[in-house]
Structure formats: C-alpha cells, structure tokens
C-alpha cells in the first residue's frame, strides 16, 4: 500500500526579490510503500534534512506535491499541517526529546492525550507497546533515572503509539556511542519488521544505512543514486561506501 508520494518537490530559500537565493531541492520524486525502510544519504548541504523537514510538514516546498492519504500535504495551511503531523507522522529525534519533568509513561502517552483519547485506550496501547519494547518496568521513572537505551525505547514507543503513517528519524545515531547506536538500529529494524512501520531515516553513518532496505543518495538537491539492500549486510555496506566515496564523503 502506498504511504507517501513525493512529486517534483523543489525548495528555494530567499524571497522573490532577493538576489541571494539558495536552491536546496530540485525536483525530487519518489514513492514509499507500507513497510519500507528508506535511508537518505548525502553530503552536508545536499538537501537531505530539508527533504525530511518537508515530509514531516515542518517546512513547505516551494513547488511540487506531497501526497499522503490521497491528499496533497503541500497545500495545507498551518492548522491542517499541525493536525497532519499529529495524526500521520512519528518522529525519532537524535536526542530523544523526552520531557524531563514527565515520567516515561507520561512522555509516551502525551501524543494520545493531545489527540483526546480516553484513559482506557491510552493504557491499552501503552501496555502493548511497552511490553514489546521491553520498558514496562521503568514506565514510572523519569528520563534521567533510566539508561540511554531505555530512553531510546521510550522515544520509539512514543513515535509508534499513534500508529503513524510514517516514522521520520533524523540522524538518530549521531550522538550515540557504537553500542548504543547499534541497539537503536536493531530497535528500528525490529519496529519495521514487527509492526510493518514505514521508516525514513536521514543519516551520514554507513553502518546505520546498512540496516535500511533501500538507500537514496542526494547530491546538490537532486537524487544521485539509489541502492537496494543486499542479502549480505557487509556487501550492502560496501556498496554504500562505494557511492559515498564517489560523492567525496569518505575516503576509500
């Protein structure tokens, strides 16, 4: 089932009268189906974060269409965009963005509370997800009282609890050590396989990218290349390395 269709999306920063204009995206088009795990890679300034922000309705394209639920999100006003984010998008941030004054339970169910769900529904969804992600025992604790891995799982649980159409992860392993980074990637892989969640992850990390089912490389605001996962993860890693070397991001 098609989840997202990006049609000829462009983004230009700077006013029409300004002599200083910057084109971040140039006619990007692709589709995502249910259960896809897409990695977006490219050099700094290539446009990958701009693309994620547009898909997450944090930013609006200058031109093009962003189709979700058979509607063009690019045409929404601010109120419609806020409702769209609440109902259709799950975010996993680099630093988790858990509120320190709330317990893990309160952090996780906050999106449901904002949507007006009753307590029984929230408890049911929380119980199911927290059990699957292994954090039932720490739900009443505050973020500063639990490990980084438990914070990761709480953030993932919060992203999943509204049954979003798509989960967006922006450099999720950027601030993590190698073990914590691998744990998070294993968690994303588990979410993708178990819940058939559709995930788009922006990353510069080759190891992180090797967990994806497909990689889309962006260069100067345009799609440069695409790779599909190999049966052997090491081979896939090496194929990603080869493309990133051409892009000048890593040395062979």
- What is the CATH top level name? Alpha Beta
Enumerate how many helices there are, as a single number: 8
Largest sheet descriptor: 6 strands, mixed
CATH topology: Rossmann fold
Strand order of the largest sheet: 6-7-8-3-9-10
Shape: globular
DSSP summary, beta strand count: 10
Task: Give the amount of beta strand, in percent.
Answer: 25-35%
CATH architecture heading: 3-Layer(aba) Sandwich
Q: From the helix content, strand content and strand pairing, which structural class follows?
A: alpha/beta
Give the tally of structural domains: 1
Name given to the CATH homologous superfamily: P-loop containing nucleotide triphosphate hydrolases
Return Rg in Å: 19 Å
Task: Please characterize this protein's 3D structure.
The chain has one domain: P-loop containing nucleotide triphosphate hydrolases (Rossmann fold, 3-Layer(aba) Sandwich), CATH 3.40.50. Helix content is 37%, strand content 25%. The chain contains eight helices and ten strands. It has a six-stranded mixed beta sheet, sandwiched between helices. A four-stranded antiparallel beta sheet has the order 2-1-4-5, with helices on one face. A hairpin with an 8-residue loop joins strand 1 and strand 2. Helix 3 packs across helix 4. The mean pLDDT is 91.
């Amino acid at each position: 089932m098609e989840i997202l269709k990006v049609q000829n999306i462009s983004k230009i920063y700077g006013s029409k009268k300004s002599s200083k204009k910057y084109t971040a995206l140039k006619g990007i088009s692709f589709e995502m189906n249910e259960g896809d795990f897409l990695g977006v890679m490219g050099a700094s300034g290539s446009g990958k974060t701009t693309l994620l922000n547009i898909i997450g309705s944090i930013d609006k394209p200058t031109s093009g269409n962003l189709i979700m639920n058979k509607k063009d999100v690019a045409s929404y006003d601010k109120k419609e965009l806020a409702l769209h984010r609440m109902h259709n998008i799950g975010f996993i941030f680099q630093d988790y963005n858990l509120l320190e004054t709330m317990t893990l339970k309160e952090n996780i169910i906050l999106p449901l509370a904002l949507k007006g769900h009753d307590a029984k529904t929230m408890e049911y969804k929380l119980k199911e997800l927290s059990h699957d992600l292994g954090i039932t025992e720490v739900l009443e604790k505050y973020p500063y009282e639990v490990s980084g891995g438990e914070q990761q799982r709480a953030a993932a649980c919060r992203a999943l609890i509204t049954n979003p159409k798509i989960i967006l992860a922006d450099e999720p392993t950027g601030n993590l050590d190698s073990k914590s980074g691998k744990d998070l990637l294993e968690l994303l892989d588990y979410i993708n396989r178990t819940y058939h969640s559709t995930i788009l992850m922006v990353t510069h990390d080759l190891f992180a990218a090797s967990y994806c089912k497909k990689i889309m490389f962006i260069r100067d605001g345009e799609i440069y290349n695409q790779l599909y996962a190999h049966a052997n993860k090491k081979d896939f890693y090496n194929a990603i390395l080869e493309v990133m070397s051409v892009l000048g991001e890593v040395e062979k």
